Amino acid sequence: MTKPTERDAELITAVLNRDSDALEILFKTYLPMIYHTYAPYYIRLFEHEDWLQEARLVCFETCQRYDCHCGKSFGGFYKLRFQHHIDNLLRKELAQKRRIDHQALLCAQCPEKRAVGENSAAYYQSQTMLMAYLEHLSPFELMSFRVLSGTLAIDQACQQFDCTLAQLERGQSRCRTKLKQYYQNDPD
Fold first, then answer.
1. Which long-range contacts (CB under 8 A, 24 or more apart) does 44-50 make?
2. CA distance 104 to 116
């Protein structure tokens, strides 16, 4: 059996030669590090698969920049680059949130107060519908929904319900399906 660093070097060389299977093997080797690194973060509209795709992209770019002769481990370099990538994604997310703050108007400054009232009514209606939907979920599905909405970390959810990541993903899938069905059956 080869040493992990020799194995990594072989896989990196294969990735540089456009071997997608080698990239997938290298990527899967570092899955625990990937999960641990992104678990504390929430980015709006980012799902589990989005995080994995970002991690694959960073893995590929890291292979292109890594120097096998520098004496440092590939894993450490990959983790550092992935963490920096997450930081950049968070900066972008926060910048978008601040842009909304700059575009917001106080109700008193709004020329059409009636439009604000209509938006408020729509918001209240959507919140009421969401609460009714949540009442139809099992405790496990509710926990899965909290992971989807970013109010609960994946590792905390798995630990709380003593479940695997695959079971959690199936619960999230059921939540999405039930939500689609709920809104399709809604008379409005």
1. 44/93, 44/150, 46/89, 47/148, 48/154, 48/169, 48/172
2. 12
Angle of the 74-103 helix axis to the 31-38 helix axis, nearest 10:
30
The model's pLDDT over 41-87, given as tens digits with 9 standing for 90+, comes to 877 778 889 999 999 999 999 999 998 778 788 999 999 999 999 98
Burial of 34: CB neighbours in 10 Å, binned 0-12, 13-18, 19+: buried
CA dist 164 and 14 (Å) reads: 32
> Which letter does DSSP use for residue 108 in this model?
G
| Alpha helices (H) along the chain | 4-16, 20-29, 31-38, 48-65, 74-103, 113-135, 139-149, 154-161, 165-185
Summarize pLDDT for 125-142 with one digit per residue, the tens: 677 777 777 787 888 888
pTM: 0.51
Structure tokens at 40: 């504390």
Cα four-point dihedral sign 44, 48, 53, 56: positive
Q: Which long-range contacts (CB under 8 A, 24 or more apart) does 180-185 make?
A: 182/129, 182/132, 182/133, 182/136, 183/129
Closest CA to 177 of 150, 145, 154: 145
First to last CA, the chain: 63
